Amino acid sequence: MNSIRNFCIIAHIDHGKSTLADRMLELTGTVEKRDMKSQLLDSMDLEREKGITIKLAPVRMRYNGYDLNLIDTPGHVDFSYEVSRSLQACEGAVLVVDASQGIQAQTLANVYLAMEADLTIIPVLNKIDLPAADIPRVSAEIINLLGCEESDIVKISAKTGEGVDAVLHAIVERIPTPSGDAEAPTRALIFDSYYDDYRGVILYIRVIDGAIQKGDELQMLATDAHGLALEVGALSPTMKSEPEIETGEIGYIVTNLKTTRDARVGDTITVRRSAAHNPLPGYKLVKPFVYAGFFPVSNEDYNDLKEAIEKLSLSDSALQFEPENSPVLGFGIRVGFLGLLHMDIIRERLEREYNLDLVVTNPSTDYEISLTSGELVTIKSASDLPDVSKIAEIREPWIRGEIVVPQDYVGAVIQLIVSKRGLQKNISYIDERALISFQAPLANLLTDFYDQLKSVTSGYGSFNYELDGYRAEDLVRVDFYVAAEIVDALSVMAHRSEAQVLGRETVKKLKDIIPRQNFQVALQAAIGARFIAREDLSAYRKDVTTGLYGGDVSRKKKVLAKQAKGKKRMKRFGKVDIPADAFTVMLKRD
After folding, report:
1. By three-state DSSP, how is residue 100 classified?
2. Each residue of 442-479: pLDDT tens digit?
3. What span, in angstroms and rounded, lies between the C-alpha atoms of 313 and 191?
4. Which of the four pLDDT bands, split at 50, 70 and 90, describes residue 55?
5. What are the DSSP calls for 286-326, one per residue?
6. Are 247 and 349 within one domain?
7. Fewest CB within a 10 Å sphere: which of 168, 309, 452, 485?
8. Could you read off the pLDDT of 28-45 as tens digits, one per residue?
């Protein structure tokens, strides 16, 4: 075990994690020159296109007689659950900071996670070759944050490869060897799992105590699922099978399980021949808090959509879904996500990999409703709200957030927080930057908070958040009517103080999107039985008198009266086709 080092790379988005991983793979000769490509560990097409890491990737490298196990983690706030799991599998973390941008919100969030997990942190200053790099300033920020010495910071350029050798040397020198007992009952931590169409569920694990051999009978302590280890081994970066994975090592297991729900991330594995009964700490069920309805454009594709989401959920244990039915959109599926980026990625994967045409309703969050009978129910969409007379109070989720921003923009950011019903809690300064802590209702940040933050801070602001519990607020359901018919899929929950403005704006946008009909259409917003906004779509006026030439005026009047009668009848029975765009009308508020 003395020759093993387990570490992960953590950083804010776009500070150079995956590029540093590429250079390490090259330097250690893990990947041959001819197979090398940039962002080698980002295997998904979407990852390569967007230039972000979505799934973490482990890899084993040999360096000067040492086994280095690296986990490349995602940097985006939506996937911080994955980062926290992979930190549990390591003894050390390489913290990458961009020499031009300095410390950002996600840098701080990941440092706190690493400190909680009691890891050795190696600070690395990346992109020193850029003209905009300000090495003294950013070094001072890192020293302030970690309380380390100037000499502890490794200065590199991951793009050119300068200084990467020093990072590998620091990993061997500073990161402690794994602790664990080879003789104790076997315990291993699952830090990722995915579904392979040909081989079934594959688990990425870190063995804490004991060993796991090929052919062992496995048991999961949290889900109590049982399976077989069909193959075990290490990733370098391709799978290399071995007879066993020993204490302190990171590797993979090919199992005969049918779904990743049986082996959730954070669970503890043990084997029948030396079974353990105490699970490792740190397992919690990951809970989605953003929900959206996915509907196929044509109802014939519903079964394809259901199959596609089931397949995606096999490899994404955070994805939760249930069938949903809407009178306007037909059959669909309500899906739960960890955040808006997560939703975006799932939508793109469904459209690309499964060729589906989708209508996605506006994302909402879940609400806790306590009824007058004392019962507590959770709803995931506004249309599920029980009868108002039975409701004692409605509680909505609040978040605790942190924004890192240059000092000049503090005023604009506080104004933005207040406009979202947020409460600014604390401001602290790290050199030239301000760290603003705040609390705010999650529903108000869902639509375009991130875009607005980027625009008021000229792109310099960065944002990180976590759930802070539920609070009772004065919330109402705003319904929308098209031609006197309620459209369930458009209903939203809103704070009473914001409902009127939201209703008015949405009705105006619907007027632009819904095509005109041959009869007048009323678009209305309502809270319960009280209408709060209305716009009218005027009718097309078809000229029915073109066929008449001269003659008595009563002929003309007769035809026009007949037309008016027809319009009246159409207004009573006419149906309005609502285009798919109408459901994305809430996404962009301004």
Report:
1. coil
2. 888 877 787 788 888 887 787 878 788 888 888 888 98
3. 17
4. low
5. ----EEEEEEESSGGGHHHHHHHHHHHHHH-TT-EEEEEEE
6. no
7. 485
8. 877 665 555 555 554 555
| Residue 145 lies inside a defined structural domain of this protein | yes
pTM: predicted TM-score of the whole model, two decimal places: 0.73
Q: Tokens in use for 479?
A: 């319904």
Same domain, 308 and 202: no
Number of domains the chain contains: 5
Same domain, 160 and 191: no
User: Looking at residue 415, what is its pLDDT?
Assistant: 92
Question: What is the C-alpha separation between 251 and 25, in angstroms, rounded?
Answer: 17
Task: Domain of residue 405: give its range.
Answer: 368-473
pLDDT at 42: 47
Kindly state whether residues 18 and 132 are assigned to the same domain: yes
Secondary structure (3-state) at 112: helix
Rounded distance, CA 421 to CA 442, Å?
10
Same domain assignment for residues 15 and 80:
yes
Q: Is residue 42 part of a domain?
A: yes
Cα(411)–Cα(415) distance, rounded to whole angstroms? 6
Q: How many CB atoms lie within 10 A of CB 421?
A: 17
Helix axes 135-146, 105-116, angle to 10 degrees: 30
CA 195 to chain centre: 19
pLDDT in tens, 370-426: 888 888 888 887 878 888 888 888 898 898 888 888 888 899 999 999 988 889 888
Query: Is the pLDDT at 142 greater than 60, yes or no?
Result: yes
The reply to whether 224 falls in a domain is yes
CB 416 within 8 A of CB 452: yes
Which residues does 376 contact at the CB level (< 8 Å), separation at least 6? Answer: 368, 369, 370
Q: Angle at which helices 80-88 and 105-116 pack, to 10 degrees?
A: 30
CA end-to-end span of the chain = 58
